[in-house]
Amino acid sequence: MSRAIAFRGVTPFLKTTDLAKTITFYVNLLGFVVDSQWPTENPTNCILDNGHVHFAFGTDPQNWYPAPGLSGQLWIDVDDVMALHERLVGKVTIEWGAEVYSYGRLEFAIKDCNGYLLAFSAPAGR
Predict the structure, then answer these.
(1) What's the predicted TM-score (pTM) here?
(2) Which of 14, 72, 90, 111 lies 20 to 30 angstroms, CA to CA, from 24?
């Protein structure tokens, strides 16, 4: 029998129509840093990091999808949901929360500048 292989993380590669606007949103509002941008001369792609959370964004019209879109949400565990909520109130529309839900998590959600739904979550009482 073969041993189980542990996955170590996931980095969604998401479509954007405005790379600079996306970088500004994630850096200024959510505290991400730019890990990389490419190609060097006129970047059409980037990787953004915040701790163990990573997102890649691309504008290349030949890559996969014609426009930004996701049929679900990106659920991000954070260490202080309420501090993040307070930082974002008045700067973006809060889609739901912050509140504790029946499954025992304190969470709220926003949409990023591309329309992706980001849910920020932590175990209730943390």
Answers:
(1) 0.90
(2) 72
